[in-house]
Amino acid sequence: MNDVMVDVRGVHKSFGPLQVLRGVDLTVRAGEVTVILGPSGSGKSTLLRTINHLEKVDSGWISIDGELIGYRRAGNKLHELKERDVLKQRTHIGFVFQNFNLFPHLTVLDNLLEAPVSALRRPKKEAEATARRLLDRVGLADKADAYPRQLSGGQQQRVAIARALALEPKVLLFDEPTSALDPELVGEVLDVIKDLARTGTTMIVVTHEIGFAREVADTVVFMDDGTVVEQGPPAAVLDDPQRERTRAFLAKVL
Amino acid sequence: MTTAAPDTAPAAPRVPPATADPAAFKVVPARHPARWAGAAAVLVLVAQFTHGLATNPVWEWRVFGDYVLSETIVQAVWVTLQLTAYATVLGFLLGTVLAFMRLSHSPVLQTVAWTYIWVFRSIPMIVQLVFWFNLSALYERLGIGIPFGPVFWSVDSDSLIGTIGAAVIGLTLHQAAYAAEIVRGGVLSVDSGQREAAAALGIPRLRQIRRIVLPQAMRAILPTAGNEIIGLLKGTSVVYVMAIGELFYQVQVVYGRNGRVIPLLLVATAWYVLLTSLLSVAQYYVERRYARGADRTPPPTPLQRARRFLRDLRAAAARREAPVTALHPGGESR
């Protein structure tokens, strides 16, 4: 078995009176793909956002490659990290948004250069070589000088994936990467993610694409109402669910 | 009309027959007589007004000509420009700081910024300027030291600030309050996902603002900021109450001496219009620069548009010279 890459322990999170996560545990091993399924409002996006500390947790903790995210431990106290240190930790965690969130005023190439140059202080030449290699990998080598709005949704999401990869992260998080796309563009984005899975990138993917989960996931996690209801290999969770809530959900989406 | 129509069809069919060549049908544009009449009426009024401008002796164009480029006036224009430039740069710098204070998570900074904006938007600029003019009455000496403690260095407020300084301070503080809200509006107009994406990529905080948020906010900031700067340029005329030799004050001095009120007001008007026009042109190009990436194809500049217009005109002329013949498919018109 591989080493544990992402470890989520007893994470709680509320937005005001609304409890979104009620004690979530999750373990992701290096090189594995974990797909999180669940109805909207089940807390899966929030869970993903706590992993790179875009949302603070109320209790519990998250570690990536043995490093606590957002906190420093001293005895049994967790000290909140300064923003600067959180930003540094985030360079190890790639995040792909549902709405791409590319920087529209920068060219595709500059979108990929921004973080490596400003956060990791890579020399620009070196970063540019990496960026062009990544664009080639997602099949958009010829779009380096285009602006994001000149691209289709699928192309934009592929650029966003390349942008996340430019930091050479330890883990990649995808928040419904195909939900904002026209149906005929979903495939090209999933193909890129599948290709990453084959090369052993550790990934956590929140999605509604059951077929994709079946094909790519090492582990499928079903969440509902802020808790993990069921998890296991795709064959077990998708074809032989043990819990009634999982069965009900799959019956609706399949 | 009915010569071509066979007897079996009482009226010409509304749709051309399927076999007809679409290129053979000529489109006759609709006529707009009311538009023509309106245009003619307006042109008559414009001609009347222009004629009046040129011939009414009250305008005294000769006096206008004598003064518009005179040394006194040009120097006054320079003072006006300086006041505008200082107040714009300093006002927007302070305004940006205030905007981010209001957007910060610190309730103290938020409150201070809000109060500042409230106070300086509440006081008429002219009242404020007279206040600053009389600053030495309020604080005779200004110094640097420990707050509420000893003062290490101090200076007479009059000699430190001077009249122009007081005017710049007054204009700046007034401008900053408005600039703060303009900048804040611009920042709020940027999708929160942008800041989030920058944070997720670990981009340092200041860089997030400078490189990601502000350039996009500029799109919303610039049109209003352009308004403000043009307003400020004209607003500097209020400074005449402090007897500073800017354009409006100097013009008043001259017509107080020679009694030629109308032509000298024209001098001031001409300069204000010229400077405002230059600012408008500058605004257009700055806006264009910040529009990069916003549209799939950027709109042409006026220069490009003018060139295209001339090209079209020439093409149209060439077509008119050509004899009216049916278009050959794939053939070129000369």
From TrEMBL, chain A:
Gene3D superfamilies: P-loop containing nucleotide triphosphate hydrolases. It catalyses: a polar amino acid(out) + ATP + H2O = a polar amino acid(in) + ADP + phosphate + H(+). Keywords: Amino-acid transport, ATP-binding, Cell membrane, Membrane, Nucleotide-binding, Transport. Pfam families: ABC_tran. It is found in: Cell membrane. Its EC number is 7.4.2.1. GO terms for molecular function: ATP binding; ATP hydrolysis activity; ATPase-coupled polar amino acid-transporter activity. SMART domains: AAA. GO terms for cellular component: plasma membrane. InterPro entries: AAA+_ATPase, ABC_ATPase_HisP-typ, ABC_transporter-like_ATP-bd, ABC_transporter-like_CS, MetN_ABC_transporter-like, P-loop_NTPase. This is ABC-type polar-amino-acid transporter. It comes from Streptomyces griseoluteus.
Automatic annotation (TrEMBL), chain B:
The chain crosses the membrane at residues 74-101, 113-139, 229-249, 261-286. GO terms for cellular component: ATP-binding cassette (ABC) transporter complex. This is Amino acid ABC transporter permease. InterPro entries: AA_ABC_transptr_permease_3TM, ArtM/GltK/GlnP/TcyL/YhdX-like, MetI-like, MetI-like_sf. CDD domains: TM_PBP2 (cd06261). It comes from the Bacteria. It is a multi-pass membrane protein. Residues 77-283 form the ABC transmembrane type-1 domain. GO terms for molecular function: transmembrane transporter activity. It is found in: Cell membrane. GO terms for biological process: amino acid transport. PANTHER family: L-CYSTINE TRANSPORT SYSTEM PERMEASE PROTEIN TCYL, MEMBRANE COMPONENT OF AMINO ACID ABC TRANSPORTER. Belongs to the binding-protein-dependent transport system permease family. Keywords: Amino-acid transport, Cell membrane, Membrane, Transmembrane, Transmembrane helix, Transport. Pfam families: BPD_transp_1 (PF00528). Its main location: membrane. It comes from Streptomyces griseoluteus.
